[in-house]
Write a structure and sequence with these properties.
It holds the Pfam family BacA. Keywords: Antibiotic resistance, Cell membrane, Cell shape, Cell wall biogenesis/degradation, Hydrolase, Membrane, Peptidoglycan synthesis, Transmembrane, Transmembrane helix. This is Undecaprenyl-diphosphatase. It catalyses: di-trans,octa-cis-undecaprenyl diphosphate + H2O = di-trans,octa-cis-undecaprenyl phosphate + phosphate + H(+). Its EC number is 3.6.1.27. This protein is mainly alpha-helical and 273 residues long. Helices cover 74% and strands 0% of the residues. It has one domain.
Length: 273
């Protein structure tokens, strides 16, 4: 793989690391990037690559929140952190709706992976962020701690995650909106979204790898490792930024950003015809 192609892969990793965690849709950005930046690798590989580099992003969550996510401790009775185990059970419950929808993934992508849908969902969820923030202004959230999330609420958040199967929605955007509608604070909504991403994105990556196969050329191995490593580093920065930002600010800026991006996507592909 030559230097220019490597730079393209690094850029894709940067886009993934930013857009996977900020609620602004990685699909919408990758669609635009793909129009201007073509990596000289097969279409099938790049389809798999755009999903599997998420493994680097997942690792960032594990590293940043390891103490909260690791369910064992020498300081606890029987070395088990009950609250952490309970959190993982809730995450599993939240994954159930997504598991049920796996057989429909390819059909949904076939029907909705187009610029018109992506532009529409970018704008629609951008408006929703602004409306929800206006509705919640001055109100105290009902769920201010992760431990306050019930199993029923976790399942409902999982239902919202299904919406992210429609391109342009944003997995983090859908689950954050869902959690906030159900009474969670911005911080709790974002945190639970990050934790829910671990099994969700790992599962999606595994299925893509299974479909593609485990035979790679040297250039493909370099591209995949570079993309994941870049996504990991940038995800660390993105997650830290978002968690710090929402302690003092709301999600409106992301709502407006989505609306502007949606208009750009719609305008570009309309004029490109």
């Amino acid at each position: 793989m030559d230097f220019i192609e490597l730079l393209k892969v690094i850029f894709l990793g940067i886009v993934e690391g930013i857009t996977e965690w900020l609620p602004i849709s990685s699909t919408g950005h990758l669609l635009l990037v793909d129009e201007f930046l073509k990596v000289n690798l097969s279409k099938d590989f790049m389809s798999m690559f755009n999903v599997v580099i998420q493994l680097g992003a997942i690792l960032a969550v594990v590293v940043l929140f390891f103490k909260k996510l690791w369910p064992f401790s020498k300081e606890e009775k029987n070395y088990i952190k009950k609250d952490t185990f309970t959190l993982w059970f809730k995450i599993v419950v939240a994954c159930i709706p997504g598991i049920v929808m796996i057989p429909f993934d390819s059909k949904i992508e076939e029907l909705f992976f187009n610029p018109q849908t992506i532009a529409t969902t970018l704008i629609l969820y951008g408006i929703l962020f602004i409306v929800i923030e206006n509705r919640n202004a001055g109100k105290q959230p009902k769920v201010a701690k992760l431990s306050d999330i019930t199993y029923q609420m976790a399942f409902m958040i999982g239902l919202f995650q299904i919406l992210a199967m429609i391109p342009g929605t944003s997995r983090s955007g859908a689950t954050i909106i869902g959690a906030m509608l159900l009474g969670a604070s911005r911080y709790v909504a974002a945190e639970f979204t990050f934790f829910l991403a671990i099994p969700t994105m790992f599962g999606a990556s595994f299925l893509k790898l299974l479909k593609f196969g485990f035979t790679f050329t040297g250039a493909e191995i370099v591209a995949l490792i570079t993309g994941m490593l870049t996504a990991f580093i940038v995800s660390i920065i993105s997650i830290k930024f978002l968690m710090g930002y929402i302690k003092k600010n709301n999600f409106k800026v992301f709502g407006w950003y989505r609306i502007v991006l949606g208009i750009i996507v719609a305008g570009y592909f309309l004029l490109a015809r």
